[in-house]
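Notebook, p. 212. Picked up where the previous page left off. The plan for this session was modest: take the two constructs that came back from the sequencing core last week, fold each one, and keep the raw output in the notebook itself so nobody has to go hunting through shared drives later. Recording the first one now, exactly as returned: residue sequence, then the structure token string.
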Amino acid sequence: MKNHDTIATRLAQILNKLNSGARLDVEELVEEFGVTKRTIQRDLNERLSYLPLKKENNLYYLEEYYLGKLNFDDMQNFAALSGVKELFPSLQENFIKDILDSTVSKAYLIKGHNYEDMSDKNKEFKLVEQAILSHTLLEYTYKDKPRRVKPYKLINSKGIWYLAGVEGEILKTFSFNNITKLQATEIEFDIDDTVVDTIKDDDNIWFSSQQIEVVLQVESEVAGYFSRRDILPNQLIIKNLADGGLLVSTKVAYDEEILKLVRYWIPNVRIISPAYLQDKLEEGLKGYLK
């Protein structure tokens, strides 16, 4: 997918066309939106796979019984599900009408994540989706080890898909592309609301019952980035410093999770506590420089 792909506006316009009864030709959509054929196929076959779409003579259209059922609430829900709800200043009806207008939409350009190619995983996605909704166990191989997992959520983080599930009594995250020999079972399990809340409320996808709280000093040169949006998982601004910098706290599941983030922001971010993490960071840099 191209970095300049205006994914939110494109999907909204495709939804609007389908809802009005249009039969969509992939090649025409490629020309209209200026994206690749593969991107349009991913839109129709993956991103909009929840719709009752039919394909006939290479044209995609909605089943008759579903025509006209998509409304602005559906579009708002889709925006929330796809993680772009906060992308726009507003998602009220008037704004959605404007953004769907082909002329108004030319005023917008969204440079989003590059997403891993999951075009060959549609069957597995549907299998996991059904297991989550029916609260049934999944069996698969992960890191050369057979697993039996209670699936809770499919999560996309920074363009990568993960499965959050409970193995034994531990909430874990599995990279979807590394799951093999996936099989459904008919063994049901009871949903644990505390697990649901943990997945929903924790910015971190690497869940742990013993999180490490880290305090960092952010220099004024980059403080604006941390003020405008959360750069770190579970980020909290503790204090605005006199020189324009910030004291920021975060919670992580393991050392390397925060160390790799700090490395990206060197020399403008420093770990204040726990001290061993800053020492570990510096020792690693010394080894690299050698």
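Okay, moving on. Second construct, recorded in the same format:
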Amino acid sequence: MSKLSSGRIRAALAALVLVVANIGYWQMASAAFVNHAQVMLTNMDSGGASAIIFAFTTSSGNTGTGLTISFPSYTGGSSGAVSASQTVSTTYNSVNCKTITGAANNLPGTPTASGNAGTGLITYASLTAFSANSSYCGVLTGSAITANPTATGTTTAVITAGTDSATTIGLDIISDDTVVVSATVPPSFTMALNTNTDSFTSNLSSGSTVGTTGMTVTVNTNATNGWALWGSDSNSGLNSATQSYKINSSSVGSNTTLSNGAEGYVTGLPAGGITQGSGAGTTSATTAYASSGSGNGSGLDGTPRKLATSTGTANGAVVTIKEYATISGVTPAAADYSDTITLVGAGSF
């Protein structure tokens, strides 16, 4: 063979190789794949049951109607299993998959799905054509995956949509996908008085019953079994140091109504003077200290006497407290009659 002929043959072979290479490159470049594919297992635990939430974006030329999701490692037995019966939905726990995945569309048509436990393949049917360059999502619930693989580690899922080529997705099976969150709500009880002085609105008189301006106690507590308010009086009455005289507390522990012209001194919680705020309980005055606002109530002494109770929590519960007094015509005159009442509260947790 001449050198010329040999050179021509080599040139022809090189040209043929370039043509074949270009054809292969063109075929690879023109192949369309599912984009942005994701497959979410709602339980990544080893051997755990899971639903499937998936999403993908079609290529620019995809108008097909087929859809499959394959789990090559879910081939039954200890490797995990796909359920043959599939429940198709657009939502998971009442939340649409578009919100979960960010996809723009639910699957087109009225899709159904079935599984093959032997091959790990889930096949969709009754889909209408996909739109090009569009993102879709779907949900398989119930027994979508009967059991994850018992072995931990990376596994795969393969999703094929319409005329696009399949895309393989990495999944991970882990020993435990849960986080236990612990918290403590500490017991809380606060009590505040709006003032530490409470004077009678006018001079005491034998011809009338006089009341104080009144003061309030505000309670906040998360005590679910309620709370209570107590009052005590170290003087057990209105005491005058200059006269060495005391207007005694009346009917301690029992409700009474003062009579004009007869010395008497009581503490009362006026009707309508209790507000519960937004707590869960109901607050009420105890019988002895419930007052109509007309000079009735009960006296206090050195022993704590329960003034009000609540059946539950309190958020801004307010209790109004007043004192009432009458005198006789011979009650010694003095400008220094005074008393000190102590108020305490507690929650029942």
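Notes on construct two before I forget. The radius of gyration is 43 Å.
Flagging for discussion at group meeting.
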